[in-house]
Amino acid sequence: MPAPHITHFAASLVLAASLAAIDAAAQAPASQIGVGATVQQRQEAARALVPLLRDVKTHARTGPTTRPGTVPDSPFAGTQTTLFAFTVSKRSVPVDQRVVTAMNQLLDWNVGANGQEAIVQIFDRWLLELEARSSGAMRLTGGGLCDVSCVVTRMTTLDGAWGSSPRNRADVRDELLLDALTVAVLPK
After folding, report:
1. Residues 116 and 24 placed together within one structural domain of the fold
2. Interval 145-164 mean pLDDT
3. Which site from 7, 25, 49, 130 is most exposed, i.e. has the minimal number of CB atoms within 10 Å?
4. DSSP assignment, residue 160?
5. How large is the C-alpha radius of gyration of the chain?
6. Nearest to 35 by CA among 181, 177, 146, 153
7. What is the C-alpha to C-alpha distance for residues 64 and 48, in angstroms, rounded to an integer?
8. 18 and 103 in a common domain
9. How sure is the predictor about 165, in pLDDT bands with cuts at 50, 70 and 90?
10. For residues 176 and 155, what is the distance between their CA atoms, to the nearest angstrom?
């Protein structure tokens, strides 16, 4: 049996080595690619997820929008009694110009082309945000982590997980996509 001071010294060495390993891991740069994703999986995810931003872009405005609208028929006349009617869009969401710019860059992105590192970094941060939100939703329903293919499936399948009203599911998903992109683009 080793002497107590030797055992204490050995334990101190193990503790010091463990702390050094934890410190080195904390200083190592975080992976830009999502949980378990290869470059090919990331590119496939980009081809599936980025086109969803087209619908998001229709809701993202830097200011309020107006468009021709309607008013209900008059209860007295039974017909339209208003000459002009404009509806302020309820679906327009004010968005920071930097987020709109990033959205446009992603929509114009030629996935897989070289020399587009800035756009790839934006996509990677956005994908990580989508993974975090999807994993959180999975945990609420008793599941585990959500990898890249799970994120793509979740974002492209408008099932009951997006709400009870089939009419509003796309809007809920678009809001999540925009929120994740906003967090990915704007400094914290």
Report:
1. no
2. 87
3. 25
4. G
5. 25
6. 146
7. 29
8. no
9. confident
10. 9
Same domain membership, residue 107 and residue 14: no
pTM listed for this prediction: 0.65
Whether 94 has a pLDDT exceeding 70, the answer reads yes
Whole domain around residue 112: which residue ranges? 32-62+95-185
Single-letter amino acid, residue 112: G
Distance CA 41, CA 148 (A): 7
Whether 110 and 24 map to the same domain: the answer is no
For residue 152, is pLDDT > 60? yes
Residue 24 and residue 100 in one domain: no
Q: Are residues 110 and 135 in the same domain?
A: yes
Q: What is the pLDDT of residue 81?
A: 53
Asked if 130 and 146 count as a contact pair (C-beta separation under 8 A), the reply is: no
Alpha carbons 43 and 34: distance in angstroms, whole number: 12
Q: Are residues 102 and 22 in the same domain?
A: no
Residue 55 and residue 135 in one domain: yes
Q: What count of other Cβ atoms lies within 10 Å of the Cβ of residue 124?
A: 18
Distance, CA of 63 to CA of 125 (rounded, Å): 26
Residues 6+ apart with CB under 8 A from 134: 146, 150, 151, 154, 155
